[in-house]
Amino acid sequence: MGESNYDHLFKILIIGDSGVGKSSLMVRFCDDAFNEQQLSTIGVDFKVKYMVENGKRLKMAIWDTAGQERFRTLTSSYYRGAQGIILVYDCTKRDSFDSLSHWLEEIKTHCTHDDAIKMLVANKVDLPNQQVPRSEGEEFAFSHNMLFIETSAKTRVGITQAFEELVLKILDTPPLLVNTRPLGQRIDGQNQQSADGCGC
């Protein structure tokens, strides 16, 4: 798919505590790869993925943010303009689930799209000794108007489905489609916002 050969450009942000598997989710989805020794993200990482859903050619700018506290001020600007936000916790670590309320506050503070679609991801479901049952994750997601899915970047479980469900919901939310088309397809003639930086 060519550089401008798409119908919509979506900015997707992946957030959550350090070590929950955000980078692994992105790498598995974009490159179908998995690294047991995946290093923690410093600041932000970025990948582009093309896909077709409902007959629409989509270009996805996927931002993987660092979970460590010291990078929070650096990553806050990347919430701006995001149509979709994936909030990840590690189902084997209760503290990563307990942090979700904090991350929702971050979204509320920094996200410029009130209609941005939020998805809660319970990652690492392939591991034993899970501390957060699925029912608790589903209940939290429901109470905060979020989509919910269980995933494992290691075994591929739920990865593609997570991104597909997210973009289908975005496509079904007209306010989020404003300014997502390539410049040549615009009726309003507004400038195409860049996929990189925080103006996406």
User: What string, H for helix and E for strand, traces the elements in order?
Assistant: EHEEHEHHEHEH
**Mean of all residue-level pLDDT scores:** 85
What is the helix tally? Answer: 6
Could you say how many structural domains there are in total? 1
Q: Strand pairing plus helix content: what structural class? A: alpha/beta
| CATH class category name | Alpha Beta
Q: What is the percentage of strand-forming residues?
A: 15-25%
Largest sheet: number of strands, sense, barrel closure: 6 strands, mixed
Radius of gyration computed on alpha carbons: 16 Å
What keyword list fits this structure?
single chain; 200 residues; alpha/beta; Rossmann fold; 6-stranded mixed beta sheet; 6 helices; 26% helix; disordered C terminus
Characterization of this structure:
The chain has a single domain, classed as P-loop containing nucleotide triphosphate hydrolases (Rossmann fold), CATH 3.40.50.300. The protein has a 6-stranded mixed β-sheet with strand order 2-3-1-4-5-6, sandwiched between helices. The protein has 200 residues and is of the alpha/beta class. The chain starts with 7 loop residues before the first strand and ends in a 29-residue tail after the last helix. It contains 6 helices and 6 strands. Helix content is 26%, strand content 23%. The longest helix is centred in the C-terminal third of the chain and has 13 residues.
